[in-house]
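> @MW can you paste both from yesterday?
MW: sure, first one:
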Amino acid sequence: MSTQVVVLAGGRATRLGPLAEHTPKVLQPIAGRPFLDVLLHSLADRGVERVHLCLGHLADRVKDHLRSGTLPPQPPHITTSTEPGEAGTAGALLAAAEHLDEVFVVAMGDTHIDLDWPGLVSRLPDRALGLMVVTHHPSGPPPNVAVYDGIVRAYDKRGVPGGLTDTGVTVLRKEALRLVAHRTSSVDLGELFRRLVQESALAAVAVDSRFYDIGTPERIQTFQDRLMDTSPQYRQKRITC
């Protein structure tokens, strides 16, 4: 079966302020196109055939967009689920469990990185429950992961001196979700990662690619400038504007 990429797109995007009041983060305009369209186009170009969207805040807006007929040509096959209340990033995966493959790639719905997505699953070690994609490349957030002998030994969003940076992309075995399945309140992926680290069950693969996120208005502008500088279709848009 082809690789399944699960995109977490249900957050409230509080750092975007008024921009996200009526428009979910995943539909924020980037160079005249919703970020979701940019992301789906990139995934399709890399051979991804199936995408599952975990929705939450303003989920109906995203579903309306998916039905609008304005998606990129030949997008991946898309399925969706909607988390009950504010379940958190790991909680969204628990809510979507019936839609998930036994092994899938999870990605943050506000982050863009160029990867060999289908090839990631084959790099998951047999004894690991997860494989985190980390980068050497400065990407904005501080290094937050320590890796030794291919295994994540420390994970701290506040920063890990001398470490690498979590790109927001991780291969997971569905059975890993059992580590947080007992939680009845909101549960973040960070908690799942820390549990996996405790069990030495989170492997890592390091890349030298920068990732871009659209978590703040300033980062939206940075990513938009990057697209317009590197992509022919966006350079043409800049020329004609």
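MW: second:
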Amino acid sequence: MVTSEGTVHRIEWNEVPELVRSEIERHLGAKVRTVNSQRGGFSHGMAARLVLDDGVRVFAKAICDDDALAPMYRAEADTAARLPQQVPAPSVRCVIETAGWFVTVFEDVEGRHPLLDRPNELAAVLAMIEQLAEVLTPSPLAGGSTIAEDYGPKLTCWRQFAEHSPPADLDDWSLRNLDRLAALESTWFEPAAGETLLHTDLRPDNMLLRPDGTVVAVDWAWPCRGAAWIDLVSLAPSMAAGGLDPDPILAAHPVTRGTNPAAIDAFVCALVGYWEHNSRRPAPPKSPKLRSYQACSALVSRKWLRRRLAWP
């Protein structure tokens, strides 16, 4: 199973300056009684479930203003605060900027990450994705970037391999089909265009299964406008890693069943190239398992893509 659990060295609650912690408590109107730090994901800012003296539970994220990831935290806070109430996502309690730190406090959602190889939990995830597409088409947020603007410069890695040189350890199938992969990759952005507000980072660890059996999407740090099918196709590698065949799921789901298979092929191809490239980069010091996660994502996605394309 592709997972990002335990992949990052996070800032702990007690490492956040006392002035910042006091300001969080002032905004919430109560002292923090217990702290449960979260270990999943790949960003190293503080992320913790807090229980207050009055019994209220919240989820807080914090990072230094001068950290390279601070813009991502700001984007998440801005997007989450403006999502319509019908969107299955945690609401924002408050945003705090103090002493050179940026803090977002969300409602705490009781639950755990869904397991895609459990039929009932997969069904709940698929229902959530359908709901997202319904509520977020067209995008309810004014402005914002498109998927081509945000991901166009990143999803070009097969072409880079073809033009310069592929990695020495690239698998035989990719080497044999390098020019075809580069050509296919170059076609992803046109069919991916659309007016749906996309999450673009749906993984099991960015979702929570609540006790009532419904699922919410968290970590809205990479929103953009594009075709509604993108989020489900982006989740498909996690399905494949759990031993599922994504193709029957995509064929049946409302957001993907009418999508041209060639469009899905092109987007998956671009994702595989991105993961093949990035998995070979040096690991970030605070996220040492990121590259192995990306290598695993490349492997399961490439196998799935190879079955779809049936190239020798």
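> thanks! The chain has a mean pLDDT of 95.
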